[in-house]
Design brief:
Two copies of one chain form a homodimer. By secondary structure, the first copy, chain A, is α/β, with parallel strands linked by helices. In chain A, 40% of the residues lie in helices and 11% in strands. Chain A has 25 helices and 16 strands. In chain A, the strands form three sheets. In chain A, strands 7-8-9-10-11-12-13-14 form an eight-stranded parallel beta barrel. In chain A, strands 2-1-3-5-4-6 form a six-stranded mixed β-sheet. In chain A, strands 15-16 form a two-stranded antiparallel sheet. Chain A starts with a helix and ends with a helix.
């Protein structure tokens, strides 16, 4: 009788949950924190047996969100609610620190904990009073939160938990994302909706989305967010905005994410309080001290300022005949009493110099050693601007006495916006593993960032990201993968692009090998495809000016030569490429001797960087045996074929994932293929007018002539809503 | 044994569905189509018994979406899957037309069906070959779809289905929503994110959101959407955009929603094809014929053009010394071969006229009878511009020989954007039920729109709506209610605001009386609250210029006097209000005699319209016995108290609905209360400088002085991202 009742109840419950809960479509909102039931039933059972209850012996905002995440994650992954207990029972998961957990205090972990620092953690299976338990232990609640996400990741990716015994600690201190969000909610180079920050309803309404944003980032170990555009609106420091920003900081705080702000260097003038912004003017220093104190009144754990100064029209210390160190140090002094830092961007270039490649180095190298201790120079990976492939910025090997951090770009400004698939984990990996030879072999960018090469004290890695109000945060679902890879590599720069892609795919889509294998494979060449159909062999910046979407390699005669395509490719009837050897701009001399020699010699320079450093004749013989012209054509066609391969691979996967994301990626790959052909044909046809040579046999003929592509570049809709170039185009 | 197995399976399934399906938070995305299980279990059982299977005997795009909606709805509401059968079984629901369903053909419905026209439907419980069945029958598949939504609504609102026997048909032909969406995805007066139309990925990617948009509108019987701003970008007629728009039209088509476009009158010039846009120039007429043919090539069932001409800077026929009829008829001729229509807006006013109130009437009245048959004049409800309360536009009673349709505004341009709660069903009802006495008693606006008063052939109702990419479509969850009420009243103008509110609350939140009763009550006075704290007693347009959010009743001395507040309120030391009687602008004479007399006499004019028509002394005695000044103060304070009442009521409802929407509305009511006080105090303190009289005893004193509010109006962040006024404000 009782069983019958239970049976009926059970039938009822089943119906209730099948039909009452609207099944949420896989719309990408959950990113890699989907916590779907472990598909491998044997493994799920093992996991279920290992995690029967959760013990948290104390509470704090961070410990509470860690416990909530573990519950949410395990409830989903195990398809079974995990009991929250007040003591060790069977197969308990204990999370905490030696200070707030008596169990953890008694496990004898102190020596191992001493090695993981303030943000690291241990995860291990152990025994306590004859009971088996799993422990996530940190020295801080934040370490516990990071460990919790790590454990969940192991289950999400279906890893064996036999002999679970691991520790992890971040290799860099500042793991920061940069939002180029304007206060009017337009996201510069964002392509994924409006800014997440809804200033109209803040501080009163704190959307659930802010919480999920913090969870996503904390799951990667990201611990800082610069929430506004480096082309900064001074109003961000107004009381009205600080009040709103403080509400965001309150949401982020339990997740260990500090808020940073981009500031406008002329704020003292723009607020109408002073006549000058001169960093050596005592009134200016006082203004910043007072305003900074106000910021900390609102946000006691405020992170600091990010500054784009004397770059692309932004004001800076040079407006007052002061240098970058003067400028940065004045702000650093205002932040120092509160423990804040200055991220000072090295992205500068003057319009009148002969080689933009040299700009940043030439301005900053003389200042090495002059920056205050709480200043970190934020350097883009390459010397120009987030191009599909660049050699590394020579500053990394040159600034021995300056704190430096990396600035990558996750948002696809130069990779087809949110409509192309281009996993950038491979770009990050290539950059971080580049050996500069600054202090001999092993002086990789990763090691320099870690402070191991020059013994710098402040370390970090930043990325310009694009999450916006689009339901899936990033527009193209695969932009998420670059965000993921960035976060993982900011924690540990030795993680490979392949590992990050593998984890991301498993967590984001499925653990099914039939899906993972082909998709991971094409993710790993997707960035190279983007290089190939846009600017192979060391070409760069052939974009339609302003929007950076489509090709316009013929662009010339602008007021700013360094904003034209011909400035970069230098193609003529004789050849193509920018001579940066000693017979040219000699930018190559900015690199350590070993590399200067390697890059400076056309016979030793890596071919994928060749035209960055050499102007070579069209008939230059490449390692493939082809002439440079034929190799160039080959690469452009290869890029298109790679996209077509991605399409073919994707087409076969329909049954393996949800319909909604499948259809979206399929549609976007179609757009990408069309765009890749436009890139290829525009470039090949244009360069052909100079090389005078035919497209070799065997390649499909361009469907249209060059005139067609030139018109297209002027009239085509660019998939970025607000870009002025897009708005002013006359469409037919 | 078998039972035990079932029991275990059942336990498994329960767990599976509880823990595997992420429970979607109630984030407002589903609007009134949530289809949650019927909470009244007895009723649910009755419904379950009535609907055991679904029979659809044919298929077509529209019939398919109707069947899918019925399944989705019943599966959710009944918490039990409805079987799809191929013949009548027990308690079958049959949907179709006599043409595509043999069952329906045999039920003898032809006489009743003849009365419901091409879009109407019958729903009834009947018998067929000794079996009980329920039928939804229409003359067209679209009628069937509308009937399907109707049946679902009955279940959603927990209506009894005993003696189910009803029919319904729309009273108006064109039930249209207007989107003021720019092609750069900024929505003018939208306040709810970006435009829904993602031009960057169209036509290749058709987001699920487009489908849900169509479902939502079809559920109300809306059959047209003007998808772009009346301040129209000519590029909307380019091939590139038409291709994208055609993809949207393909999604909307099964749901009976036709696409219309706002056009720029100077398109022939702006495309660079012609030197003129003169409607009487044969080249211009040919240009429009050809372009219109192209539109129909892309979208065979295209609806037509909406035109804002010679209004607020938009081009129009008057630029070529032609009148509105010349302008509209030329376009009408281009559309006529394809069955398209022109919606020609009557919203015009010249800067130099003495009384903007008169503008529209003075321009259009002389043209009555001159418009082509497929032109419909689209007239805003009031003579000015969507103010919280206006008398009706005198055109409605004046244009006896012209097709006219209503233009309402759902988006809250003048009602606190997406941060205030202001259900506008009451405004629509008040407008539609206003008796103009044009042909004697009963000549209501609703009857005029229906064509009953002047025997016009084309009928319709439009509303400017604001759905954008915000997750809940409209920003403030309660803006949804005005969209809902508009749609219901466009179908049947006799539906009351109370009925629409009741239905909307039940479908959107819960059928729980403890929730419905208080919320419905405050919804019904929420619009009046907005009138009271902004512009009571017939005041109007006291807004801060440009943004239309906060108060600035002191605004004067602009280049355009008709864009100042003082132009509208005419307050002085003697009194307040705009004299529109025969001793003033005599706009009152635009109304039929009965109303002209009533409105023209300060003793008979309704007090809530008084200052629209009369300049009255401050000590004018009101019906309450108070002086005008004291009554004005009383109304301003009453508005704030009404908002506070809404807050108090809402505070008591936390346990009755989901946490997310509860918290959002609570936070927004807090903002509204603060804003209402700012409105009240700004207006009362400003008018006090003229009346010279004290705020009567018993009212709380304003916290700040007038100077404070004047500064606030210049410096406060306005919750609309892109508004120039908002962007240029200096914030402190």
């Amino acid at each position: 009788m009782r069983r019958l009742f239970l049976y009926k109840l059970c039938i009822f419950l089943t119906y209730f949950f099948i039909f009452s809960v609207p099944v949420r479509a896989e719309d990408g909102y959950d990113l890699w924190l989907r916590y779907q039931p472990v598909a491998d039933l044997k493994l799920r059972k093992e996991y279920q047996q290992q995690f029967e209850s959760l013990l948290v012996e104390s509470n704090s905002p961070t410990l509470n969100v860690a416990a909530a995440e573990v519950q949410r994650g395990l409830n989903g992954l195990l398809a079974k609610p995990i009991a929250v207990s007040k003591k060790i029972t069977r197969n308990t998961l204990v999370i905490g620190t030696p200070v707030n957990s008596s169990v953890i205090a008694s496990l004898g972990l102190s020596e191992r904990l001493a090695n993981v620092g303030s943000e690291g953690y241990l995860i291990e299976k152990t025994r306590f009073k004859n009971r088996t338990l799993t422990v996530i232990a940190g020295n801080s609640d934040l370490g516990v939160l990071y460990g919790s996400f790590h454990l969940l990741r192991l289950l999400q990716t279906q890893q064996s938990l036999d002999n679970l015994f691991l520790s992890s600690a971040p290799k860099l201190q500042h793991r920061v994302i940069n939002h180029w969000d304007n206060l009017n909610r337009v996201v510069e180079r964002g392509y994924a909706g409006l800014s997440l920050w809804d200033w109209g309803t803040l501080p009163d309404y704190k959307s659930q989305r802010y919480v999920d944003y913090a969870r996503i980032n904390a799951s990667l170990g990201i611990n800082g967010a610069v929430i506004n555009n480096v082309n900064a609106d001074p109003r961000v420091l107004s009381d009205q905005f600080l009040q709103k920003i403080a509400a965001l900081a309150d949401v982020f705080r339990p997740y260990g994410i500090k808020v940073y702000l981009s500031i406008n260097y002329n704020s003292p003038r723009l607020f109408g309080d002073l006549e000058t912004g001169d960093p050596l003017d005592p009134g200016v220093a006082t203004w910043w001290q007072e305003r900074t104190k106000k910021v900390y009144d609102y946000i006691p754990d405020f992170g600091g300022y990010l500054v784009k100064a004397n770059s692309e029209g932004q004001p800076g210390p040079q407006d007052y005949q002061r240098d970058h160190a003067d400028g940065a140090n004045m702000l650093a002094a205002a932040l120092q009493p509160f423990g804040g830092v200055v991220f000072w961007r090295a992205f500068v270039y003057q319009p009148d110099i002969g080689d933009r490649f040299r700009g940043s180095y030439d301005e900053f190298k003389p200042l090495d050693g002059k920056f205050a201790d709480n200043v970190i120079l934020q350097v883009k990976n390459g010397p120009i601007d987030f191009q599909p492939r660049e050699p590394y910025s020579a500053l990394f090997s040159a600034m021995e006495k300056t704190n430096m951090m990396m600035e990558f770009q996750v948002t696809q400004e130069y990779f087809g916006f949110a409509t192309h698939l281009a996993y950038q984990g491979t770009l990050f990996e290539e950059s971080l593993r580049t050996d500069t030879f600054a202090k001999g072999k092993g002086s990789t960018i990763g090691n320099i960032l870690e402070g191991k090469v020059f013994n710098t004290k402040r370390t970090g890695m930043a990325a310009v990201v694009n999450p916006g109000t689009d339901r899936n945060w990033t527009g193209h679902p695969f932009v998420q993968s670059s965000w993921y890879a960035f976060g993982r590599m900011a924690w540990d720069h030795s993680i490979t692009a392949a590992t990050a892609a593998d984890e991301w795919l498993r967590m984001t889509f499925t653990n099914d090998k039939k899906f993972i294998d082909p998709v991971k494979q094409f993710m790993l060449y997707s960035r190279e495809a983007g290089v190939n159909y846009r600017s192979p062999l060391g070409l760069t910046h052939l974009y339609s000016q302003g929007d950076h979407y489509g090709p316009a390699p013929w662009t010339a005669n602008l007021e700013r030569p360094d904003w034209t395509a011909v400035y970069y490719h230098r193609a003529s009837q004789e050849g193509i490429g920018f001579n940066r050897t000693h017979s040219g701009s000699n930018a190559v001399a900015q690199y350590p001797e070993f590399l200067a020699k390697q890059y400076g010699d056309i016979n030793t320079v890596p071919e994928d960087l060749m035209l960055w450093f050499h102007h070579a004749p069209w008939d230059h013989k490449m390692r493939s045996g082809r002439s440079l012209w034929n190799e160039l054509v080959h690469k452009y066609y290869e890029g298109v074929e790679q996209v077509r391969n991605m399409q073919r691979e994707w087409d076969g996967l329909e049954s393996l994932i949800d319909a909604e994301r499948y259809a979206q990626v399929k549609a976007l790959l179609k757009v990408q293929e069309r765009d890749a052909v436009i890139w290829r044909d525009s470039c090949v046809l244009y360069f052909q007018t100079l090389s005078g040579q035919p497209i070799p046999l065997g390649y499909e003929k361009p469907k249209y002539d060059l005139a067609y592509y030139k018109t297209l570049a002027r009239t085509r809709y660019v998939p970025e809503p607000w870009h002025p170039a897009s708005a002013s185009r006359v469409l037919k």
